[in-house]
Amino acid sequence: MGKQLYDIGDQPPVGEVPEKMHAWLIRADRFGKPTEAFQKEVVNTPSIADDEVLVYVMAAGINYNNVWAAMGIPVNVIAARNKAGEPEDFHIGGSDASGIVYKVGKDVTNVKVGDEVVMHCGTWDRNCSWVKKGGDPMYSPSFKIWGYETNFGSFAQFTKVQGQQCMPKPKHMNWEESAAYTLVAATAWRMLHGWGASSIKKGDVALIWGGAGGLGSMAIQIVKAAGATSVAMVSGEDKFDYCMKLGAKGCINRNEFDHWGMLPHWKDGAGYAKWLKGVRGFGAKIWEVLGEKRAPNLVFEHPGETTIPTSIFVCETGGMVVVCAGTTGYNATVDLRYLWMRQKRLQGSHFANSVQSNEMNQLALRGQLDPCLSRAFTYEDLPVAHQLMGDNKHPHGNMAVLIGAKEFGLGASGKPAVTIVHPTLPKGDVHTTPHPYPMSEPLPSIESAEALTITDDGSKVRDLMHAGIISCTPDDTVGTVAKIMVDKEIHAVVVMDKQGSAVGVVSQTDMVLARQGRTPDQARAMLASEIMTPGCATCDADMLLSDAVSLMTGRRMHRLVVTEKDKPVGVISMTDVVRKIIG
Ligand code: NAP
Question: In this structure, are residues 575 and 498 in contact, taking their beta carbons and an 8 Å threshold?
C-alpha cells in the first residue's frame, strides 16, 4: 500500500498512483496577477478514460495561454468548462510537458507504463463523426488545447492526456529541455509542412518573423531540415548570431524600417508611394541577405496587423503567407491586387494534428531540433515565470518549470544521431512587445451565437444629429465643394443627384486624398463625382446611437447621413458622439 500523497520531488514507484497530488491551481475568486492567481493546493489525482493516459510530470513548458487563464480574460476557462458539464471549480493549466507514463486506459496502444514521453497539446473527441471519417482532427468541433481549454494540464504531479498526445521523449534532452519545445515546434511544423504544394521543400526560401521567439526559433530549424533557406526577422542585431546558429542564412533588424502597420488608403497616392518605398527597401534587404534577387516563397507570419501587408507584398508570385496569430492586432490589411494578380495564398494555421506533431518530434529525436530553452524555473517559481511573461520581462526562446524533477539537468541519457550547436541568446535579453490574447480565444460562430446583453442608455441618432443637409451636385468642382466646407464649417458635403437622392459624400479625407500627388489647381479642377465616396452610408433617425457608432467604425467612416422615410434629413458624426461622451 503506497502513500496517499507524495511530496514534490519524491517520485512514487513507477505505476503507483497516489490518491492525491500537489498542483498549482487557478480559481475564479483569485483571477488576476499570475503571482496571486496560481496557488499551491492538494487535489484528487484525476481518473482516466479508456483512451487516456496518466503521466507523472517531470517538467512543464510555460506558454502565454496560462497567463491569460490566470487573469480570467478574455474567457473564464473554469466557467466555460462548468457550463459544458465539467464539475471542477478550478483550473490546472500547462500545455507542454515531459514525464513518465503511470497508467494507461484499456484502448491505449502507443505507450505503456514506464515510458518516458513528451506530450503535444491537441485533444479531440475520438467519437467525433468528422474524426471518425478520417478528417483532420484540427478541423473537429471537439478540438481543444490540453491544459488551457481542458483541465488537469501539466502544472501538477500528474496530468491527464489522451493516448494520441504522447510521443517519445528525446533521450538526449533533460526533463526541462524536453518540456519546452512541443507546442511551438508542432505549430511551426504544420505551418511549414501542412499546406500541400505550398509547403516548404528543398531549395525554397522562407521569411521567418520573430526568429528568436518561440515559434520562429523552431521554424528556422524546420526550414533548415527541409533543405530550404531562411531569412530571420528580429528586433536587434544582438539576436543575429542566435538565429544564424539555428540555421538562418541571414537576419534583418525590423527596427531599420518604419513602414509597418495597416496599409495606407489606396487613393492616398503620396502615402501609398511612401509605403511602397519602405516595402521595396525591405524587399531589397531580403535580396541582400540572400545574395540573390529572390523573393521568399513562404512567409512564416504571426505578428499580424503590423506586418501582413509587407508579408503579402514580398511573398513570391504563387507563394504562401501562413499565419497562426495576430500578436500586434487582428485587422490585417491586404492589397488584393498583389494577392490575385500574383496569385498568392494567405493561409491560416492553428496548432497541429497528431501525425504532424509526431513528424516534428522525429526531428527532435534525431537531434535536429534544439528546444531553445532560454530559462528554467523551480516548482516554487511557476507563478513568477508566468508573471514575467505577463509583464513581458522574459527572454526570447522557450521556458520551462520543474515539477517532479528534483534538480535542473536531470533526465538526459545517450547522444542524438545528429549533434547541433546549442545557441545562446544575448545576455539580459527580454521581449519588447506585449502579447494581446491567448491563441485559443474562442471565436463566435453561428452555432454558439447567443443573445448578448448590451448596456446602452437608449440615446437615438435624432437626439444628437445636426438637422438639415448641406449638399453639392456631382458636377460641382472640388474647389466649389471646398468653399462650401470652409464657409459652413462642416467636415463633409452630401452629393445629391437631380432627383434629390444622396449618391455620395465628399469628406475632408476625400478632399485631402485628391490633393495627394496633385497640384492645388489640378485638385480644385476635379469634380465632386470623381473624388466622392460613392454610395451614401445612411442611418434612420430612430436608430440607436450605439448602432450608428458600430456602423461608422465598421466602415471606417466619421459620419452618416440621417434619413427619415428614406429622405435625407441630417448628419450625425463622430464629433457629435465625442461631444456627448465628454458630456
Ligand atoms: P514569442 O516567443 O513571444 O515570439 C514572438 C516574436 O514576435 C518575438 O520574438 C518578437 O521578436 C516578434 N515580434 C514582436 N513584435 C513584433 C512586431 N511588431 N513585428 C514583428 N515581430 C514582432 O511568441 P511565440 O511563442 O513565437 O508565439 C508568437 C504568436 O503565435 C503568439 O501570439 C502566440 O500566442 C501565437 N501562437 C499561436 C499558436 C497556434 O497554434 N495558433 C501556437 C503557438 C503560438 P523581435 O522582438 O525580436 O522581433
Answer: no
